[in-house]
Amino acid sequence: MQNPSPTSRFANPARADTARDNALLPAALPAFCTARVILITLALGVALSLLLSLVPGLGAERWSRFGTTLWLVTWIALVTVALLCAARAWLQRLPLAALLTTVVLLLLAVTAISSVVAFSALLSVGWESNETAARFVLHNLAIALVVGLLGIWVFSLHLANARQINAVAQAELSALHARIRPHFLFNSLNTVAELVHERPEAAEQAVLDLARVFRAALAADEQVTLAEEIELARRYLELEQWRLGERLVVDWQLPEKLPELHLPVLTLQPLVENAVRHSVERQQNVGPIRIECQPGRHSVGLVIENDRIPGEARHGNGVALANIADRLALVFGESATLRAGPVDGRFRVKLVIPRPTPSAREESARKESAQEQSPREEST
């Protein structure tokens, strides 16, 4: 049997585009429950109602037609948005074609039910209709279908824009990763070189430790778990311990169970390296470093704190800080922050990384697990 050619994976660009669009859907799909989306929906409803009331031939009934249409359109819009909000976690898991079809069918179903209810309510208050209930419903369904198709077109433009932004962001992120890794490797090699001259007996073990650090840094994906990133920082500090000895003291303030989140590789290690390079190795006495993880409900804080050297206005040249800040911005947007500066005579860097939003399935599993544990605790 012949092996497929190297280019066979890329023989179907349409399938690749579909897969890329499906991956972008969770980020591109709007949060329907927000006030911004609701206000935009209401504004579009008013515009649509005004447009329908400007049809020639209405005469004196124009404004009453506008009020009736606005009432019906607002009702349809709010119910549809509420259902989309409730089903957003489920909609995110659908392929693009199925998602768009589901949204249009939902809009048509809400329009049909609302039109039947509205027709009966209007007749009960003395409204004289020139068309039957069936024609009234079909007329509204036709308008809803046109609005739904226009919505699909607008969403397609939004998704194309999101695809372009994502491609640019991925290219920038890869460039930043490629820039930080050689910096890390070069500095680590310098550490071993200095150790060979100062403590030759420890050089062999240091090289083994360096190999472990290199393997972890180079084999990692562009994003790793927080536990993996902390383990990489620990291995780097073990390597530096050979050179600095008792001067390097690290105070780890970590919870028993680390939060489950992903972050760009080599996020924590360069900050720890800065603390070693610009604080510990420039002191003759003990240079304590504090590394703390602060789990929160919606985010996780990571703090790296070290002594300041008297007379130094700056803490390094800021290359690592700028690189990490740029990578966090590309991955998390404005949800992640990096702040660095003097605090109470020490230099502190604090990262705030957002926790991943749990899906509906994960939230349901968490609640079921909590309910199962509750009877056990009561029985004990």
Distance between the termini: 63 Å
Alpha plus pi helix count: 11
Reported for the largest beta sheet, the result is: 5 strands, mixed
Overall 3D form: elongated
* SS-derived structural category: alpha+beta
CATH topology of the largest domain: Heat Shock Protein 90
Summed over residues and divided by their number, the pLDDT gives a mean of 77
- Using the coordinates above, name the CATH class of the largest domain: Alpha Beta
Architecture overview:
This protein is of the alpha+beta class and 380 residues long. The chain folds into two domains: 12-165, no CATH class; 199-357, 2-Layer Sandwich (Heat Shock Protein 90), CATH 3.30.565. It contains eleven helices and seven strands. The strands form two sheets. The chain has a five-stranded mixed β-sheet with strand order 2-4-5-7-6. The chain is elongated. The model is unreliable at 1-14 (pLDDT under 50).
Describe how the helices and strands are arranged:
Elements: H1 13-28, H2 35-53, H3 62-86, H4 88-91, H5 96-124, H6 133-198, H7 200-219, E1 223-225, H8 226-244, E2 248-253, E3 262-264, H9 269-278, E4 287-295, E5 299-307, H10 319-332, E6 337-343, E7 346-354, H11 360-379
Parallel strand pairs: 2-4
Antiparallel strand pairs: 1-3, 4-5, 5-7, 6-7
Helix pairs in contact: 1-6, 2-3, 3-5, 5-6, 6-7, 6-8, 6-10, 7-8, 8-9
